[in-house]
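=== RUN LOG ===
request id: a7f3
mode: sequence -> structure
chains: 1
length: 308
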Amino acid sequence: MERHPSPIETLMTLPGARRAPLSAAQARLEFIDRRDGATAAYTTIGAFRLGGALDPAILERALQAVVDRHESLRTRFVVVDGEPTQVIETAIHAQLDRRDLRGMAAAEQEVFLDCAIRQERQRPFILSSAPLFRALLLAFAEHTHVLILTWHHIVCDAWSYNLFLNELLDSYGALVHGTGDPLPALSLQYANVVERERQWMDSTGTLTAVAYWKQQLQGIPERLELPVDRPRAPGSTFDGDVARVSLSREETDALKRWGREHGVTLYVMLLRLTARYSDATPGRTTSSSECRWLTGRIARRNTSSGCW
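=== RESULT ===
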């Protein structure tokens, strides 16, 4: 019997395109950027304290190795013939900016750190200029450093952020000890995932599902009216805070039982509650083995069909 390649195998053999269409998640952010202009609203930032001996030059080489590995980290976004397009650069210099704070008192160092994080968080990215991330290393003492990583959300989500940091540390360790590349070869790049997403969105099953939900959702309010204690502001300020809620095992089990009785998952229940009482929407990372080593906008809708 003739064996036909699976969709993922077909993707693995696609030529590496220098230009590629946007994923649905990227298209939303690119549209907002063109509508509102460059903004820091979709900037992701993290600061990591590093203890022990550290060679900044080797860390920059490790950063370069990860950037060379992932096309999404070498991608910029432009409009070509009226169509938003990813432009994947063949090579990009991964720069590690450095600040030496060893001459400061400890209290002054912490103040500088807070200011640096605030400034990085508020500085927008220009989507047409790659790379869409920044790396800043602060030296507090000989064996104490803080690494600040800043991204635009169009090339990075929580899954990618953790993956990038792990790969950076693994590459640094390998370069220090001369043990060779510790990272597995990538079977596909983010542009391949986008192509697969577009094929899925154009499939008969997806079009049927979209038509069904359009019919089901007819007549719903165009605007989400939230229960608030003051009038809605005319414009978004993005000022906010984090509110954490912990549920006991008994409460969680009760919610799961209620969900089973009504035919919904715990995820859907929490999604509904979150949408009712806030502007936030929970995301879901992929469990696809093909995408577990991939950076980009990997969090996708709740489907069983792979990495989107």
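=== NOTES ===
The domain at 7-192 is CATH 3.30.559.10 (Chloramphenicol Acetyltransferase).
Confidence is low (pLDDT under 50) at residues 1-17, 284-289, 297-308.
=== END ===
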